[in-house]
Amino acid sequence: MDTEAVRTFVLAAEVGQFQHAADELGVTQQAISKRIAALERELEVRLFTRTARGVELTIDGQAFLPHARSIVAGVERAITAVRPDSRALRIDVLGFRSGQAVVLHDYWRSHPETALDVVTLKAADPHVAVAAIRAGDVDASFRTVTDPAALPRDLDMVHVIDFPLELLVGPRHPLASARTLTPSQLRRHRIWVPGIAPKSEWADFYDQLATAFDLRVDGAGPNFGVEALLDTLAESADVATLVGSRDRLVWPTSYDLRRIPVVNPTIAYPQSLILPRSNPHPGLRAIIDYFRSLATLPETAWLPSWATPRRR
Amino acid sequence: MDTEAVRTFVLAAEVGQFQHAADELGVTQQAISKRIAALERELEVRLFTRTARGVELTIDGQAFLPHARSIVAGVERAITAVRPDSRALRIDVLGFRSGQAVVLHDYWRSHPETALDVVTLKAADPHVAVAAIRAGDVDASFRTVTDPAALPRDLDMVHVIDFPLELLVGPRHPLASARTLTPSQLRRHRIWVPGIAPKSEWADFYDQLATAFDLRVDGAGPNFGVEALLDTLAESADVATLVGSRDRLVWPTSYDLRRIPVVNPTIAYPQSLILPRSNPHPGLRAIIDYFRSLATLPETAWLPSWATPRRR
DNA sequence: GCCGGCCACAACGATCGGTTGGGCGTCCTT
DNA sequence: AAGGACGCCCAACCGATCGTTGTGGCCGGC
C-alpha cells in the first residue's frame, strides 16, 4: 500500500472531488483516479461512489477513512522522528527494560502528546553518549560520568533520581523468604552481576559497595543476556543478584524469582542525565522535573562517592 | 512511502539480517536491500549500519522503529476494517454529532480495544439502513421504524436509550434566561426544526409532540446545515429549536446559545438499534448494555406512541 | 590464508505511476 | 430540447521503480 495513495484518499474524501484533490496536489485528475483505483483494487472494496458532481464515500470508504487518517498521521510522526531539523525529543537509555526507560515510559503515558523517541546506544563507554549528544544525534542520555572533570564544558550532567536496589533470588536461596534485607545480611552470599565492563561506572559502584559492606560481588564472566541470568538464579541455591527497584524484568511465572528490598541502609544507584549546557531540548525540563518528583531516598541511604544525593 | 518497505524495515530490524528477512518474505536479499535503501533515500537518513554478520539499527533507525510499527499496525487495522470476512463491528448512526455517536464514542473510549467503525448512511429512509444490515454492509443501525410490522422478520429492533430534549435558544429569546422549562411554557413560541422529511420518524415525533402539548413546531424549510440553524437562532428573538441532551453541537463561543432542559414532563426521544435477529455481531451485546446502563427517564416522561419506554 | 556468510552494485525485464488525449454521463442553462 | 460545463473513466505512451540474476567486497572463523 502506498501512503501517497492513502493521503490522496483522505484528501479526496474531504473535498469530495478527485478534480479538486488533483489541483491541490498538483497532479492530473487521472492520477488521482488511478491512485484510488489501485487502493480499491488492493482492498478489493469500492471506496467511493462516483457521481456527476464528484465522489462520495461508500460505507466501506467511511469505515476506512479514520484508519487512513491514522496511517497518514503515523507516517507524519515517523518522518518528523528522523528529520534532523524537526526532530522529536530523543533520549538515550541504557536499555529498554532499565528503570530509566520504565520511568520515561510512565512520563510519556501521563504526557502522551510529547513527541518522544527512546533509543539506546549499545556501548558501555559513556564517551559514545557524550559524542552522540555533541553531534546532535540524541538530545540527552541517561548516563553517568563518575569523574565530573571528564565531561566536556559544553555538556551538563544533572542528577535526576536514585533507584533503590533489590536482591533478586530464586526459591532455593537461603534468603528467599525474607521480606526485607539489610546489607550485612548479604555478607558471605555470592552476588553475581555479570557483564560489568572493567573501570565502568558500574564496576566502580559495585567496588565501593563491596568495600563498604564487606560483600562478595562477583562481576566476572560474560553477559549472556538477562534470560541466562534469570535461568541461573532460578536454579541456584547460592547465587543472587541486585536489580534496581524500577527495572523491568520479565520472566516466565514458573521461575518463581523474588525481589527483596534492601534496607537499613537502602542502597541506591544514582541516575544522571547528560544534556547540552546551552539550548537543551525544551522538552527535557519537564522530564527532569518528573523524575525528581518521584519518591526520594531516606536520609540514611547509601550512595557511591560520586553521587550528589537528592534527599528531602 | 511504501508500507511494504516499512513492514520490511520492521522485520529486518527484528531479525537483524536482510538475508533472513528475505527468506521470511520469500524474496531475494537484494530486494530487501533495495527496499531499505529506498526508505533511507526518502527519509534522507541511514536506518541500518551494515556489518559482516547482518545489520544493526542506527540511532535514527531506533527512533523510526516504533513509528514504523505503528504504521504497520494502522495498515493492518485499515485492512481488517473493510475485509468482508474479518470486518470490525460497523454501526450506522444518524450523524457524527448525534447523541448516538457521542455515546458510542464514550463507549469506545472506555473499551478502546473494540474494533469499531462508525459510519452514516446518508438517507432519511430507514429502509436504506434495513437493506444495508440485511446485505451485511453494516452490523447495526441506530434507527427506528415506527411501525414494527414494517421490519423484516430476520431483523430485530431493540430500544436502547431515551434522550431528553432541550430547548436551544439565542440570548435575545424571551425564554433565554430560564433554568428549566415545562412544555406548557413553550406554547406560542415558535419551534423550528428544519430538514424534517415528511412521514419520517421525526415528522411523526414532532406531530405527536405538537398535539400533546399544543405546540407550534415548524418543520418546514430545507435544512441548510447545522451552522445555518445556529446562525439563525443566535440572531433571532423568537425562534428556538429542540436538541437531544447528548447531541454535540459545536458553535463559536461568540454565539452565546443556551440549552435549557425541558421538564415536567421530560420530553424524550427514544433511540433504537436495528440488528440481525440471528447471529448479530458479538460486540453489539456490550454496546447495547452500555447504552441501557446510562441514566434512565423519570416515570412521568413523555414519549411518542411507538416507544417502549425503559424506566426504573 | 582460505572459506563462508552477508551486503552492495550492475544489468535486465516486468510492472507501476505519471501524462496526454478522448469519450461518456449528468446537470444546468438557454 | 440542445448545448456547454464539469467530473469521471479508459487507452496509449513513457520514464521510474521493483523485482530478478550475477558479481564483487568485506569481515569473522577455522
UniProtKB/TrEMBL annotation, chains A, B:
The keyword DNA-binding applies. InterPro entries: LysR_HTH_N, LysR_subst-bd, WH-like_DNA-bd_sf, WH_DNA-bd_sf. One of its GO terms (cellular component) is protein-DNA complex. Residues 1-58 form the HTH lysR-type domain. Pfam families: HTH_1, LysR_substrate. The keyword Iron does not apply. Gene3D superfamilies: 3.40.190.290, Winged helix-like DNA-binding domain superfamily/Winged helix DNA-binding domain (1.10.10.10). GO terms for molecular function: DNA binding; DNA-binding transcription factor activity. Keywords: DNA-binding, Transcription, Transcription regulation. Belongs to the LysR transcriptional regulatory family. This is LysR family transcriptional regulator. It comes from Nonomuraea rhodomycinica.
